[in-house]
Structure formats: structure tokens, C-alpha cells
Structures
1.
Amino acid sequence: MSKKRVYYFGKEKCEGSASLKEILGGKGANLAEMVRLGFPVPPGFTISTDTCDYFVKNGKYPEGLDKDVEAAVKLLEKETGKVFGDKEKPLLVSVRSGAAVSMPGMMDTILNLGLNDETIEGLIDASGNPRFCYDAYRRFMQMFGDVVLGIPHSSFEKALNEVKAAKGVKEDTDLDADDLKEVTKKYLKVYKDAGKEFPQDPWDQMWKAIDAVFGSWMNPRAIKYRAINGIKEGELLGTAVNVCTMVFGNMGDNCGTGVAFTREPNTGEKEYYGEYLPNAQGEDVVAGIRTPFHLDKLNEMMPEVYDELIDIFAKLEKHYRDMQDVEFTVENKKLYLLQTRTGKRTPYAAVKMAVDMKEEGLITKEEAIMRVSPDHIETLMHPFFDPDAKEKAEVIAKGTAASPGAATGMIVFDPDDAEKMVNDEGKKVLLVRPETSPEDIAGMAAAEGILTSTGGKTSHAAVVARGMGKPCVVGCSAAEVNEEAKTLKIGKLKFNEFDWLSIDGNTGEVYEGKIETVRPQGIEGPLAKILEWADEVRVLGVRTNADTPKDAAAAVNFGAEGIGLTRTEHMFFDEERIPAVREMIVSDNLEQREKALDKILPMQQEDFYGIFKAMKGRPVTIRLLDPPLHEFLPKEEEDIKALAKEMGISYEDLKARVEELHEFNPMMGFRGCRLDVVYPEIGVMQTKAIIGAALQLVEEGEEVNPEIMIPLTGTLNETKYVKELIVETADKLIKDSGKELSYKVGTMIEIPRAALVADKIAEEAEFFSFGTNDLTQLTFGYSRDDYAKFVKSYVEKGILESDPFQHLDREGVGQLVKMGVEKGRATRPNLKVGICGEHGGDPYSVEFCHLVKMNYVSCSPFRVPIARLAAAQAAIKNK
């Protein structure tokens, strides 16, 4: 028996359902599901995603597909009473894409298929409305030419504009039947000029359209969209093809089309949100070609249809247990649903909806946590306009607030230029367009924000920007965009490319110039509630990497439970301290070094005191000095001369010391615990500063939990040597103080050998912290300073799945981590284990830390909320 590849949905029969999403794609599965629910859906059929997979791999269709499609069309003819290709009662269809994962606007759609010079006469006779018929015909010719034959969209727009100009009108709706008939003639010339022929055979149209939709799965914009959204090639079978009976919103004022959401996708409020265009087809709204009305317009014009739609919204949301994005058409006062899907939403709305739906009893706490992505939280932690700076700035225009957030950047008109400027030059850009199209996806992803002069809240720009978490203002009619001249006019103001502009996606306001931004200082509202639930579910602790009291305090506000890494070397670069540090480095005997270290000691102790105080009894892990000493010395000749003069030594002596410390490979050189082995007085000074600060707070009645961490150990003897000098120094200070103070001594595991002999190292170390930045570097043999030259090519060519410094390499580096944890705990069962590299704030890496049963992850303060959520999601996914 041959494999089923065509699934019918309609009153005759319904072969699909929402459960077949992987095979039917989201659109096809949901159309079938809505038929099963009894909602008004035009009948049609879906060609499966695995047919797309077969087509892409083999360049042809599986045997028998043509007969299956013809049988489905016969069923459509029976149900509608119309005949495909018939001159008297022609059946017209739409051919649309639809993958298992929603990819708005990324693949192709063709409407009104089946029209030709003969069937249009039958449509005119049947409808009695020649204007509508020629409007449908010219739309089909334009879509078919653009999507199937690759004729530029602009060629058709130019022909249409010529007819409008000849008549002296601006809107398509001002053209009558004769004008539109003239447009179709001009379109035939567009085909001819492009060396193409418009097919008159409806079946030829059908198969070419199916070819185009399946082919669009591998078009550049669809591939780019999948890459941007983390969908790996091969993860999905492809797109389905949905062939659906046409219903028409462009037959007159008792017809129209719209897009609506069952909740407000910007704010998450439980209120309906949508747009409606009378006498139009769906592409007019989605593509942003015309600026639509608020959904209330439908209520004004056809209240009974509006009430039916609102009733359906409530039923859809209850059925799918999530906010729905619904496309609909009204034909002669009859409502039809063309699509429902889980709606794209802003990060704030995603959080609010998750909390509200849990509290409404629609979803569980665990589902609410899984509804919020780490990317949502990251966006919410991004800067917003400084209120004082914004108050001084002048609003020069206002459009529709389509996606919230503050964006400031250099004006760029071309999406390809935007991508290049950001990725290659590191610039901040604002993409300014009349409207966006699916081809703009890469530029939109690169830009800080998007401004368009046309379109509404459900246009392509708005929907895609919301999905990306990008600030967006659409429908800013005061913005006159000249793409050819690369200029923007707003009133009397003229802006050239690369001028600075700022937009507020919360208000729709546009500002001249650059406005300073600030970061959020805490967590409140729905986000606080989601993270509270996350804390109830997660197993992993979450700490922060912080080198100053200010960073430590910020991290506590974001929910950090301690500090997993304080880098002591960052404090050495302070301009008041660097002279003493350099004095210590150039000293050529112990006495001189200790004299210099005595100057540094009170400074370090003051630093640690501030951090301990900010953490209020939470554990604080302080890493002893790690980088090579030469990093603290100048390299240029003039700088060396200036420093020699400042320090009262000869230029020759200082230069000789700089050269002596120079290393060919400092990453693997004289650094980390090696400094304390050769110069134990450095480790002694730092231990005195740490314990001294802790004892100060004990004296004040405060709780303190210091953890002293030895960097870069690779052998048991290194760990043992440095630990002994720490313990000897610390215990003497504590004994002399007469106070009680507990502390721990542990090590970083960042050298592959340390992971291999972790059972030995755990004989001395009371805790492990995996430094996965260096561990990745040493395991792969990639220099972090140089790997950027090749890693992009490695990822693009599939040699690496992702950048291993961004997402922990589970296969290689991960095995060393797992081995280190298991070996360490075999020796010391209560060994506390964490991670403090950049991976500590990466959700993929956090999940791995959960799987290997670490105690905590540590990350930068502003990534603490992300790690809290990621840890909870890891616990839920891996119950």
C-alpha cells in the first residue's frame, strides 16, 4: 500500500488533526482541527511535509502523487459545486506553505489560482462583479509571476502604478473594472518582457505552484530564518502544501480580511487585538501594503460577524490552551477562518500570558515555566531609554507601536547592508523601510530595531519583530523613505544613511539622534512570579560572577544565591593600585616583593570586605591571581620609558624585566597556581586579604562564607602545595583574632589533566569549579583570541554544531566535565561542584550541568534570571 501523502479537510471528510502537525505542518493540522471543531473553514487538502522532503532530495514527486491530488480536487468540486478549470463555474484555490514550526512569511503563497482568460468570464457571470474578478486576476498574475517564475515584484508594482497615475488615483481600491482589466494586460507584457509566459492551463498553474511552495523550503530567506531561530537543517521534514478553496474579501464593502490575536501580543493583556481591511485580500494586511483599521471596524460594519469571530476566539484559546493568531476572511457577510496558530508575542507578553494562564487554570506551573524562553528574559534585561535623556529628546514622528523596547542606531535602508555593518563592522543600526518583506529577515535580525512607513500591528515587520524581541514602529506615515536616494524625510527634517535615529516600540515615538539607555535594576511583576515558580522547581543553584560590590548587589537583586567567581586580578588594574602591582612584578628579591605586596594588601582587603558585605552571608568564591604577570606591564617603548621614570628605575632594567616575563604562549605559561608555587608570598597576601575582610565582618556580627579557589591546577601536588600555604595563613589569622570563621579551599578544573585525575585532586580540594572557557580552549586546542577567524566557517559547513565557547561541547569537553564530577565525588561524596565560565549563563550548557548533577552554575549578574529559568526548564525536561 502506498504511503498517504494527501489529507483532505472539509464536510465530505476530514483526514487530519492537530496531532499530525509534523506531517501536515502547523497550518494544515490546524485547518483540519478547526473543521473537526465545527468552525467555518473553506474545504481543501494538504500535501504532507514528507512529500517536500522527498521532492527536495530527489527533484521529483513520489509515484502516484498526481492521482492523489486529482482525487482531492474531485472531492473539492463535489463539496463546492464548482469545477477546477471550468468556464462557467470555476473553482479557484489558494496554494500556501506551512511547516511544523511557524515561519511567518518565509515561504510562498499564491491566491486565486485557476483564473485564466476563459475562467474569468465564468467568474464574472457567477459573481456579477467584474471589478472584483479583474482585481483577483491581477493579484494572481502578480503572485504567480513573482513566486513561481521569479519576475521581480517591483515590475508588477510599476505597471500598476502607471495605471493609477494615468487615472490620477493613489489607492488600488480607486481603480474600476476597466482599469484593472488594463492592469492585467500590462502584467502580460511584464511576463513577456521577462521572457516568461503566463500559463493558461489551470493544472499547469497548480503543479507549478506546488513546485514553488515545496521549493521555497530551501530558499535563502527560509534557511536564514531557521538559522536565526535555532532550527537545525534536517530537524524538520519540510513544508506542507495547503490547497484551499478561495473565499474572497475583495468583492465589496460587505467583504474583507483580517488578522487577530486572542490576547494582546505586545502587553499580554487579556483583550482581543487585531486589524481588519474592508474589500481586501489577506496579503494586503500581512504584507503591510495597506495600513488596516482596528478590529473594531468590523464591529461597526458587520456586528453579527464580529460577535461570531469573538465567540470563536474564546473557543480556540480554550481548546489550544494558548494565545492564537487567527487569519480570517469575510465574503458577503459570511465568516471563514483561514488559519490559526500559536501567536508570536513580545517577551513581556510571553511572561505575562504564562503567569495569567496559569492563574486562570488554563495551564500548569510547569507549563507556564516552559512557555517562557531564556531569550525572552534576556530581552527583558536589555537596556531601555534613560528617562532623563528621553525627556530632553524631541519626538519628530509617531507611528504604531508594534514591538516594545528602546532602539537607537545608524539609519540603514538596505537589509543586506544592515547585516554586513553589524556582523562585519560591529555597528549599531536601525533598519528603515517602507515596509519589510520576508527577504529582509537577516537585516531585521541584525538591526537594533525596525521602522516602517506603512503597515499595521499584524504586518510582516510587526509579527517578525515581536518574534525576535526587536523594538519596532510601523505605519509611521510621516516617514517618507526614498530607498534609491537612501534618504528619510520627516516633515522638514531630512536624514541620510548612517545618521542616528531612535525609536520607542512601547509608544511608537520616533526621535532624532541618539538617546542613552540604562539597564533594569531589578525584577518585578509577572517576571518575578515566573522566576519564583522557577526557583521552586529547579535543582541547580544559581550564583554570579562579580568583581565589585556593585555587581554583587545587582546580582542579589536578580536572584543570585552566592558568588561563583570573583576575579582578583580585575582589581589590580585600578590606576591607584597598578603602581604597587608593577612594583611587585619588577622586584628582584623577596623583600622587595613583600614590601610591594604590603601596599596591595589593604586595597584587596577593602575590595573583599565590600563584596562579602553585599552578599550578606551568601557563599563567595574568590579566585587567586590567575593571569600572567606580563599583562600588568606596558609593551610599547614609550610606555616602558614613562613607567621606568615613574618607578625610579632605569629603562634598561625595566625593559629587561618585561622581556624576561614575555611568553610565546601565555595561555599555557606562567600563570594561575604556578604564580603561587614560584612566588608563594602572592598567595599569602591574597589569603590575608580574604580572611582579614571576612574577620572584619565577623567582628561586626555579620555572617560570612568565604571560599578560596586555586586556579589552573593540573596535579594533586600543585593543589596540595597552594592549599597548605592558604590554610597555614588563614588558620593563624583566625586563631590570632579569637573569632570563629569557617572557610573552604577548592580549585578550578580547567585543564584536561585535572579532570582526568579529579579523584586525586579531590583529596585536597573541598569544591570544584569548572572553568569551561579554558577547558574548552585546551581541549579543542583553539585559542580564544584567534578562533573567530575560522569558527563561523566550521559552523556553516557542519564541522561544528555550534560555537563551543558559547554552547558547551557535550561530546568532548562535556565528557571531561562529567568525568571530573564523578571522579571527584568518588573520593569526596559531598564535593560541591559548579561552573563559572561563560557557559554558566547559556541555557543549553545549564541543562548539561543539571544532567551531570552539579550543585550550581555561575554567570554574569544580568544573566542570573536566565540561568534561574534555564535550570528550572532543565529540571522539568529531565524529570
2.
Amino acid sequence: MIKVLVVDDSAFMRQLFKKTIENEPDLKVIATARNGKEALKKIKELTPDVVTLDIEMPVLNGLDTLKKIMAASDPVPTIMVSALSNREIILNALEIGAFDFIPKPSGSISPDISDITKELLAKIRAAAALDKPLRNIKLIRPYQNKVKRIRRDNFPIIAIGASSGGPKALKEIIPVFPADFPAALIIVQHMPAGFTTSLAQRLNQESAITVKEATEFDRIEPGLALVAPGNYHLEVNQDGGIILNQAPPKWGVRPCVDYMLTSAGRHFKERVIGVILTGMGHDGAEGMQVVKNNHGYGIVEDKSTALVYGMPGSTIKANAYDEILPLQQIPFRIIELIERRF
């Protein structure tokens, strides 16, 4: 039985989440709290397995509460609950150590209520399955050595897919690459529209290469990382142009890693290095098979560092990879592969 503490200043939201969670035979709400001060007291008394935490609350808000939860010797996996307009605060929460977030429903008859409750239940189960402490992000310094120069018509394409835990993982990879990095990057991170804009801006501020949210006017090029916008699949054509579309979600997500990897693998074959990072679900395994079938290279994050092992595990099960590496080794291995393969 997974024990959940629901924290929200809205009585309606507390009741909605309690009813939703307790409809599941493996989940139980052991208590609710109206603010962060109450939540911290109940965490100490009741030791929940997972906390759902509203951001905007009186007495002690969600972000300050999260800081105290993460400062404990055994931090409780915490899922933030917030209106999507609070995206900067939510990204701060993910950096502090929140497991993930879900959008706050606008009401009991909100058209998205069914999707949100399904997402809530899936993330509670994934958070409860964590077997490692949550970590704050440390400052990453760019690779200091000179990277091999490569012909402009034969540069490598690094295609990275991630979901839960991905923003933190990306911040341990992208800032390592130096300003003269000779590869192009395309990134799919499962996030709603708007959040990917903020994520790209943050990565750009902390990286030597340029990072931006992709548009249909963009082309892949060395030293540029393009992040798929929320609610759009990202593909790349044979000329390196970016294609964005709103085809139906796959695996329940849009953008989908499989779309990106499949198009890159088919068009750029051995020039592609695919990377699957932490994340719930199965997205990425099929796309990595296409990369491998076209003589590209595949790297999967190791279980020792991945927050959630759904996507990496599915890729390994499909045998669609060349190497399994801890997160901190991945950027340096990419640089090494570029030196050897191009």
C-alpha cells in the first residue's frame, strides 16, 4: 500500500485528490494538510511514501515547504500541483528536487480532469518506486579540451529523449558541451506548452552552446540545441529542417521521443547518436531501434542515476542501444564518440 499525503489549501482539491487516490486498491491517503506548516508536521508523524504539494498556500507556501522536505536526511518524493501559469516556480521546484508536477484541474467538470487524474496516479506510483535520494543540481563546467573539427556537411546529430527527471538530467549534460561543439542537438522533454520555452531559456543561460525552443524556421547545425515545443512532435527532414506537427499523441505524450529519433535515424543514419534519459513509460525504445537499424549509436542512462527507469528500461528490453552509462559519464562519452566516429 502506497501512503500519500495530500497538501492543498483548497478543500475541494483535497477532496478531489483523496477520492481519486482512494479509488485505487494500492493507494491510500493517510492524511491531508492545508498548508506547508501542517504538511511538515504530518510528514514527521506519519512518514508518507509520496506527497502531493500545492504551490500557492498560506502560512508556508509549496516551494518553501519543498526546500524543507528536500533538506531532510530522507526526503519524501514530492509531486508539485500548480496552475500551468506558474511554470518558472515549477521549474525551480524541479531543480530543488521535486519528483515531477501535474497541472491543477480548473474544476470537477474541467475537460482535462480525466487526463490529470490518470497522470496523478501514474506519477504517484512512479515516485513511490524511487530507490535513490533526490538531488539538487550542481554547477556544471564546460569541457575544457579542444574538440575535433568536423566538416560542416557531416556533423553528428545528438538526439536526446527524457521525461520525469529530465530537466535535472539535461542540466548535467548540455552545459558540459563547449562553445565550439561540432555536433547538432535535438531534444524531446515531455512537458506542456510554455514549459519547454522556459526550460530552453534556462539551459541556454547555463550552457556554452546555444539552446532554444525549436520552430519550423530552424535547421539543425553544430553548436545549437533545439528543444521540441510542448504539444508538438518534432521531426527533422533530409535537409536538416525542423518539422513540427500535432499528430495524435503517442504513448500519451506530445512531443514524443519516437517521432524525433525515427526521423533522425532514417535521414542521418550513422551520424546519429541517440540518448535515452530518465522517464516514465516506453517512449524512445522504438525510435532507438530505428537509429540502431540505420547504423547510428545508442546510449541509455544507467539505473544508478535515472530518477525513473521506464524509458531507459524499455530501450534496454528492446536491445536498442550500444552502451548503458551513469548520467555524469554521458556527455564525455558523446565527445569521445565524436572524436572516434567522425
3.
Amino acid sequence: MPLLQTMLGAAGEQDDFRHGGNVRELSDKAKCAPEDLLDFSASINPLGPPDWVRETAVASLSDIGRYPDPDNSELTLAACEHFQVWPTEALAGNGSGELMDAVLRSSRLSKAVIPTPSYVDYARACQSCGLRVEFLPLEESAGFAVDWVSLDSHLTEPAAVILTQPNNPTGVCFDADKLRELARRREDSLFVVDEAFADFVPGLDRLVKDRPDNVVVLYSLTKFFSLPGLRVALCFARPERIQAIRSKLPPWTVNTLAQRVGARCFADKTFMDSAREGVSELRESLASELATVPGLKIFPSSANFILCRVSRVGMSAKPLAEKLLAEGVAIRLCDNFRGLDETWFRVAVRSARDNDRLVRSLKSISGVKTASKRRKSPALMLQGTSSDAGKSVLAAALCRIFVQEGLNPAPFKAQNMALNSCVTADGLEMGRAQATQALACGLAPDVRMNPVLLKPNTDVGSQVIVMGRPVGNMAVREYVEYKPKAMEAVRQAYDELSAEHGVMVLEGAGSPAEINLRSHDIVNMAMAEYAEARVLLVGDIDRGGVFAALAGTMELLNDWERKLVAGFILNKFRGDPTLLDPALERIRERTGKPFLGVVSFLNDLGLPDEDSVAFKSHDQNAAAGENQVDVAVVDLPRISNFTDVDPLRAEPDVNLRVVRSAAELGRPDAVILPGSKSTVGDLRYLRETGLDEAIKGLMGKSVLVGICGGFQMLGQYIADPEKVESEAGTVEGLGILPIATTMGKEKTLTQVEGSHTASGLDVRGYEIHHGTSEPLLPSIRPVFRTKLSAPLGWGLKNGAAWGAYLHGLFDADGFRRHFIDQLRKRRGWEPLKTPQTVFNLNPALDRLADAVRSALDMDAIFRLIG
């Protein structure tokens, strides 16, 4: 029979009651910020709190001007419904500690029996309530199981027996039926069962409902729901005992926020099931890894923590804890648990990444050489409060700044939804924005920089391109199902690319607060977490409402997502930035995040836009100025590669207009039909708006140009026998060029160099299209030819209409000037002959970098990437 140890009320030192989780004290010793400490000393569910906790707490703030419900009715009823007990058998309190004191004070008992090791505060509670405590050691040789016979033999006088289910710190569960049997036999004793960790144990026989009259069950929401800061718990007992316990409590023991959050916890069955399963998997994995550390003995646990022992002779756990703390890792020394000595320690179950770090640190301290795990390259991620907030441009700026600092950066965007794409040297398709960012880094475009590209072809579907190649057209729900596979490609691409570079500059998409997309996110916070990136949240002040957007975004983020946000950037500001100071301070106080800069509105950057938002915002009614030729670009619903016309916009003698109706078209010097991701659908749009007849009416009056999809539309017909784009089969084109297009499933992706047939001037660019186009009449001639003389496009002999599949053809300074000069000649103006502008993005990127560098707190940003 184990030796019974006795403690009189005043015995024991204050240090006997120390706890884990004192983050401030531990971080001071570790010489790190509290948020940087990896705390394994407090056993809190690593998968909590539930995502809705913040919003529920914030929504409850409107009621803080009133006293909380003294009966905790909503909370108590929710708990009773969950556990299927009567409301008269439940009582809420400000944490289990408060309820334990009230239970003991109402018991009128003078003795307590505590099987040990156990939670150290039980002894403190007994001491403060004047109970004499007898400790019943749980033997390691018996797996720390309760010895019911021994326990029974020490209940010859009434006593309060305090047990934890499962035990803290051993994680061992006891047989609930054995307790029921003993309680019925010892009716004059009180059995207090603390089920603080019971939710972690699948299928556990709970005593909340099926309990004898002399059993009280304590239940805390602290551990399982990760709510130690709210202090909310309940106890369950027969009604008469509940009333006696209530009499020992002060009024209003549970605040309004805790009541509301606690009530909702009991309704969240989804969180309970997923957390129970997830923590179990994490625990088993951690236990298996810890068992490989030499000199440690690991004890099986059913809870969210694991008890360990230093098994090497003459060694204690204290030096180990000190070495770990020097690395920013805290464990729970167990020498103040009665029955355990200085060789014991406990570790909480945390995330897989945290657990891996703990195991690696333990092995390193133990002298075990582990396979080197490459630390991820430092990473910074730009996310926005909306689309077109300027993320792409700011990412390009940071890429160029980091190049200037010699940091070897690379850009990355996991998933890009855009119709503006380019082709890499190896014939793979990626987003144009990442190609620009690659240029800012001094790198060739690499499809790993944008592993997933979505090109919308309907309002509810897109062509999905993974690692540069199309994998199919998918509706939204189809793509959601496909996303796990897409994420595999994203992770592989990121790992490979980041291994080759010193710092990664990531870009998000849209807003991370699009909560309807959060569950299957692969491009915003999920990617930031995987890359271990600090996030800069960008707000567009030019569109208005930016402070609401920033604060609202932070409110809608989950707790772990908010922790990734390092600060804010205001973009596109016009005016005196000092006028913003009161608002910046208010947002900083509200969110706890600093502003890292205010970037002015930068006019005429000369950089390609990522999507068509900016393109579609251009003034379509601007009249041509003096000595300017008038070029109209038709805005198609599924316009793609709209940046083809950017070099024309930069020319001083060109007025570039965006038109959306026949009335806006007028009589320009040239009409450009740009690329389209849905050629047949956009051709239908031209007919519905009357633009088709308006364009045909300009034959002989304006030069008509088609690029890619626009080239196909200029032809006689488009056949789609394999229904790549349309169910229509064959549709008529505009009939301007005598060509016929046949769609095909294979997609042409290639970079091309060639020359303009009439002038001999060089052009270069890339082709991205389905299908081929063939001439129908000899009256048509090749407009461009490759270096091997293959036709790149076709046009009328008089030059009045022509088209090509070549994106980027206007980037060539010589050909662009030739095209404009031909329009000038048609007006009777002198050609300028020499290029008026040089289309080179590098000077623009340098100007951008200079402007952004001067606007941001670059010292703070450099600290973020180490």
C-alpha cells in the first residue's frame, strides 16, 4: 500500500504552487518578445480558439454598460443541453479555481485526499479552505493508475477526494465506474472530479451526467477551447449542493463576454470534433518523435500534453529547460508536482511545426545530429484590403529595392486570376505581373513564381493553368475540389524557388477577409503561414473608406491570421500625409499594428497592370489633342493581355481611348480589337452592342487591327468542333479579313521573334492561343514572319486591316513608331520616323523603387526579413 503523505494547512512554500504559461516571465528569461516565445509549458489547445470567438466577444461589447446576467442563464442552459442535465444541476463560475474554492467551503469537511501527482492548485485550495490534506501517491510502476483499494482505506472519515480526468500532469484516465462504485460506498465523502482535459479524450465515460449524488464535476472551457483569458467554467452536482456552492460565490461571477462566448462553445460541434481528432494526431506524432530523443522516457497520455522524464543518471530536467529557454522554447518543469522530482517535465502538444522545433532542439541538446532542415528563406507578403490596392506594384518595388540591397529576391504569387499573362522561355504560361516582378529582380520569368493561373472564360468558370500548362476548364465548385491538388503544386514550386533565393516577396490576391473563400484559401493567409511570411496589409486610400477597410479586414481575420500581419501601408495618397496622423494613430490603437508608410499616388508609372480593373477605368471619351492620332481600343468583357497597348499609350502623339459602345467609337485613325479569353462570347458582345457594324463601317476609313482573339474575330468564321470555347460549333466572324479559324484543344504557348513584312522592322513577343487561322483568298498577305519565314499574321494588301497572334508586338520601339507614322501619313502629317519613347521597364522600376523606398519605413521592413 502506498505511503500516505500528510500536509497541514500552513505547510509548503509559495513556489509549490507555481504554474506554467507565465509568458512574460519566461520571455524575460529567454530575452525575447513574448510573442516570439514558443510556450510548451501551458497546455492549451493548439487548434483553438474557434474562429468566431473574437466576433462574438466584440459583438458583446455593446452590453458592457449593463451588469451581466447574474444567473448566467444562456451559458448554463447551453452547457446543460450539451451534457443533457437539468439546469438546476449546473452552476457557472469565473474559472475552475473559483468553483473549487466554493465547493470545498460548502462541503463542511475538514479533510481532503488528493492522489498525486496532480494539479498543484488543489492543495492550495484545500489549504485556503482549512482542510487537512492527505496525498496518496500514484505509483509510476503502476502507470500512475488510481489505487482504489488504497483510496478507499483512507476514507474511514468523511473527506473531499479530488481527482482529474484525465490526470494532470500524467494524462492518465481513471475508470469512471470504479469512482461511481466507491462514491456510492462512501456516501459521507465528497468526490470532486475536474474534467478540464476530458474533451480531448474520444469516447470518454463522462461523469457530468451519470454521477452519484456525492460527486461534483468541474468543467473548464480554458483548455479545450483555448480561452484562458476569459475565465469561464461550470460545476455539475445535485441541486441542493449547487445551491450550497452558489451561496459561497459573489454575484456576477462571469462577465458578459465570457457568458456569450461560453454559450456558443457548446453549440460548436464541428470545432469539438475536428479539434479532438486533430490534437490526438498531433499528440501521437509528438510522442513518437520524443521517444527518439536519447535519455528521455515518454509516458502515454490521453490529453493535450505529454509527461517526460530525464532518464540519464545524475541529470535533472532543469539544465535542459534552461538550454531550451535560451532558444526561445519553454517547457514545464514538474518538480513542484508532489510525487515527481527534478527529473520530470511536461510539454504541451502544439502545432506540427512547433512540435518539430521542440524535438529538433531536444535532439541537438542531447548531441544527436539530425538531418539538416533548411530554414525557409525570409519572406515578406503583400496583401490588400481589396483588388487593385496596388499589391503588385508595391511587390515589384520591394523586389527592385531588395536587388539594390544585394538580397537576391524572387517574387511569388500562389494563384493569380488574370487574363493578362505571358509565356516563359520554355513555353509555359504565367501571370504578367509576376513576369514584371521577375524583371524587377533581374530574373527571367519562371513559372514557379506563379504556379496557378486562372483565366476566367465565363462568369462562373475559368481555364485552370498549373505550372504553366492548362489542366482544364473548371466551374467554381470543380476548382474548389481541385484546390488541394493545386496547393501541392504551389508548395513544391515555392520550396524550390525559395531554396534558390535569399528573400521571397509574396503577393496575395483580392483580400484575405473574403470569408466565403477562407476555408479553401491557397493564396493569402494560408500561403503566408506556409512560407512563414510576415504580412503587410495594403489599403488604397484613393478609392475612399481605407481606414474602415483596414480595421474591418483585421476584425474579419482569425486570430492566427492577425498575428501574421506586421503592419499597414497606405497606397495612392494625394496631399499632405501629416493630415493622416490622427487616423493612423487611431487605427494603430485599435489593431495594435503600426503603419509602415504612406505611398503617394504615382502617375504614369509605365508598368503593366495585373488585371483589367485599371484598364477599364481609363477615360473612353478623351478627345485627341493637337498632333495626336486617335486610337480606339475595344473593351471586351473577357479582354486578355490588355497591356499590349500600353506602349502606344506612352507615346506623346497618340491618344488612346477605351470604348465600350458604338456611340463611343467615333471615327478613330485605328481600331484595335485586343485579345480575348472567350472569343466567341466576346464576338457575341460586339453584335449585341452594335459595335460589330460600327467597326465594319470604318473599313477604308480607319486601320482595323486584331491581336490574338481580336485577330480571330476579324475573320470570316470561327469553327470550334471540339467545343473548346463554345457549344455553337461554327460562328461567323466580322468578315473583314478572309481568314478562317479552327479552335483546338492544344494551346499554343511560345515566345517568338520575327519581322514586319512591309518595313523589315524586328518584332518579338509571345503567342498564347487555342486554334489556328488560315487564309481563304490570295488577296491577303503575311503581315509578320518568323526568322524562319513562317507567317505570324495576315492582312489586306492595302494595309487597311490586319491581325496577328503576337502579344507584345507594340513593345518594339521601331515597329511601334512605324505603325504610328503610317497613321500620321493617312492624316497628311509628317512622320516622325525616330522613336519618341523607349519602351523599357527598367527605368520605370528604378523610379518606382526610389519613390517607395522614400515612403516606407525600410529599417522596419528590413528587420521583418531579418
